[in-house]
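Extended Data, panel c. Modelled sequence:
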Amino acid sequence: MLPRIIIHNSISLDGSLLNFEVNMGVHYQIAGNYKPDAHLIGSTTVKAGFEMFGAPPPEEENDFKKPEKSKSLPYWVVVDSKGILKNTLHSLRRFEFCKDVIVLISKETPKDYVEYLKKRDYYYHIAGKKQVELKEALKLLLKKYKIKTILTDTGSALSNILLNQGLIKEISLLVHPVIVGKKSENIFKSVDGNIKLKMDKYKVLDKDYVWLVYKTVK
């Protein structure tokens, strides 16, 4: 048995993830309605966020221990086999809507990154040799943390891998009233082939936005 994984993204009318202004209020209203046990995030997306919005602040004493937060909050699960988020994870841990960070690594993850995780008392798990084996990691998350529902609403790389491996149960898309055109970044650009879907619901939100939900068909 595996957790239920939902892709939730805001896109333009021509299927772009980038280069338009996202209605964050409606986006996160939908995300919150799913009440996920965890958010699954790729390390490259987190790094891109830091590059766009600025580097995280320096670490403080409290960043070296687990936070005391409401048990009802979701975990943030970060896939980072290369250790590219060294010295930045405390920014995620501090976020008010994050219970704590769980890091998924591999056997070949740099040792200095593993030591970094240990010293700051992060939950971390080895799943895979060179890269994180997502199916193995998902089984672990369900067994150890009772994570049954996972939402991923970051970049296309991780969600496309999950789709290619047949691990996605549902796709939620908030379509924005804008065409990006030449600068578009297709949300499904790395999907290997046709994936059959079944319409679950559609709804007009905030007058000009359309919420589409599809279930994947095995």
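The CA atoms of residues 83 and 113 lie 6 Å apart. This feature is highlighted in the accompanying rendering.
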